[in-house]
Amino acid sequence: MPHASPHHTTPAHELSLEKRAALTSGADAWHLNGLSKSTSYIITDGPHGLRKAMENTSMDIEHSIPATCFPPAAGMASSWNPGLVREVGVAIDNFNPLAQRTSVTFADPAGMDFVVAHDIGPWRAVIEEHIPGAHFLYQQDLSALEQISKYSAFPFFYSNLTRSLRMTDERFMPHMRTAVSIADPANRIDFYATFLCDNRRLALPIQQYLAQHWPREQ
């Protein structure tokens, strides 16, 4: 759809009566008449999705350009099926731009909305501080969060530690979630441990084990 430029417009009162009348009708099945071919605007129907025919003169709904469309609210309500409505409500497909990437920084999802498990410990401060303008919906009921995850294809953003947990695979990966790594210098938490010299023999094996098995950056 072309942009209307203030440098190439003609006041309506300067147009002929025939030209003004033509602007209210269609040039073809999907375009309005414009002042010229370059200013003809395409009109599509919906309402919950964008439909565009393959041919400008065709009304054939069987041959439209692929698009993600959802039934309108009136149609969903007529199903009398609350479970189906909930499933459709979270069926946001993998067309999220960030779902097309293998990794993101904290700046990339700025201003987005997130559904987050309530008990994430110190990570809560990390994400709230480093993702600008984001809104976080903290879900206390993990079973409800799992249902949202089950019926959606929201991108799943993870740290190297989170992705290495077996629980992560069990909860998210079987449901065709798109896993996106957070590759950001701020995506880290430093841990410190102290022990008495007398306990060195007990503490060193634990320290060595963690150093060998702690997930590396991906």
How would you characterize this protein structure?
The chain is α/β, with parallel strands linked by helices and 218 residues long. It has helices at residues 17-22, 73-77, 82-89, 123-130, 142-150, 160-164, 166-171, 200-213; strands spanning 103-104, 113-117, 135-139, 155-158, 178-182. The two termini are 41 Å apart.
Which secondary structure elements does this structure contain, and how are they paired or packed?
Layout: H1 17-22, H2 73-77, H3 82-89, E1 103-104, E2 113-117, H4 123-130, E3 135-139, H5 142-150, E4 155-158, H6 160-164, H7 166-171, E5 178-182, H8 200-213
Parallel strand pairs: 1-5, 2-3, 4-5
Give the helix level as a range of percent. 25-40%
User: What is the global morphology?
Assistant: elongated
Give the strand content: 5-15%
Low-pLDDT windows of residues: 1-7
* CA-atom Rg in angstroms: 27 Å
Counting DSSP H or I runs of 4 or more residues, the number of helices is: 8
Average pLDDT figure = 76
| Class derived from helix and strand content | alpha/beta
